[in-house]
Write a structure and sequence with these properties.
The chain is mainly α. The chain has a domain of 124 residues. Helix 1 packs antiparallel against helix 2.
Length: 190
């Protein structure tokens, strides 16, 4: 990944964390936390991106230097420029522990903010659950007339089926009587 992108990501986390700490310590209740976090993240991303570009430039320059032939006349100017760039990068590397500490603080602050928001989210989830039950009751009430109509039709059909079954049972009984009568006579005769 390009060092500028890594720097922007780290910088945005650090910037958001610093902004979160500043907002949490602020006495002004009208401060918008989300916009302050976004502004801090944007500022941190810009700073981290610039540092990442510097580190990427430094790495590319060193690779190019190793690949190109030596030119005697430009060595002195190149050395001076390299010293300046090295000093800037050394300062950036020296600032890295501070940035990491700020990132840790930011993460802690973000977790604290998430813990503070948890009751509100749970409250909203409970309200949504209640609304879902209310909607289910409305749906049941709306479906009840249709279910009653279907139940009446099923009862009527069940009556027809029961009448047919009764007729079939009577016919079967009438057919079985002579057979049973003959069987009983044969048993008595034997």
């Amino acid at each position: 990944m390009h060092k500028a992108v890594k720097g922007a990501l780290i910088g945005s986390l650090v910037g958001a964390g610093v902004a979160g700490v500043q907002v949490s310590r602020s006495d002004d209740p009208s401060t918008d936390t989300a916009s302050a976090l976004l502004k801090g993240a944007a500022q941190g991303a810009l700073g981290g991106g610039i540092i990442g570009l510097g580190l990427e430039w430094r790495g590319n320059r060193r690779a190019a230097k190793a690949a190109r032939p030596k030119v005697k006349g430009l060595r002195r100017i190149t050395r001076r420029a390299e010293r300046v760039v090295d000093r800037v990068l050394d300062a950036a590397e020296a600032a890295l522990p501070v940035v990491e500490e700020l990132a840790d603080r930011t993460a802690t602050s973000l977790f604290d903010l998430a813990d503070a928001a948890r009751p509100h989210v749970e409250s909203l989830a409970g309200a949504a659950r209640g609304m879902a039950f209310d909607l289910a009751e409305v749906a049941i009430d709306a479906a009840r007339p249709h279910a009653e109509t279907v139940a009446l039709a099923a009862r009527a059909r069940a009556g027809e089926v029961a009448d047919r079954a009764s007729d079939f049972a009577s016919e079967a009984t009438d057919r079985a009587r002579p057979v049973l009568h003959d069987a009983v006579l044969r048993i008595h005769a034997a």
